[in-house]
Design a protein that fits this description.
Arc Repressor Mutant, subunit A; alpha+beta; 13% strand
């Protein structure tokens, strides 16, 4: 058997692909900018800001979570239960991308 696809690439190449996937959609870039501005945002706020359905927002959030850019935080019942904020690595990656996106 051959090597797995992950073994074919360097960590730098895999990291580039991860970042590329995260910023491949305009809505995800807007979400990242909004998190950088407010530090934590909710699905409802994202839906209103990017004019997308809750389902579409959830799909974008899922990709940003899978790629390690954001994580969810419990906000309590009064705030809509959950918000999203950068992970430590996600924040570093986003600020390194500032000149590109």
């Amino acid at each position: 058997m051959g090597r797995s696809k992950r073994q074919q690439y360097t960590e730098q190449e895999l990291n580039g692909a991860r970042i590329g996937r995260a910023i491949a959609a305009s809505a995800r870039i807007v979400i990242l900018y909004e998190i950088s501005k407010y530090h934590i945002i909710t699905n409802k706020y994202i839906s209103e800001r990017v004019k997308l359905s809750g389902t579409a927002v959830s799909q974008h959030i899922q990709i940003l979570r899978e790629t390690g850019f954001i994580e969810s935080k419990y906000l309590g019942e009064d705030e809509g239960y959950r918000g999203y904020t950068f992970t430590k690595q996600g924040e570093i990656d986003f600020y390194n991308l500032q000149g590109i996106i």
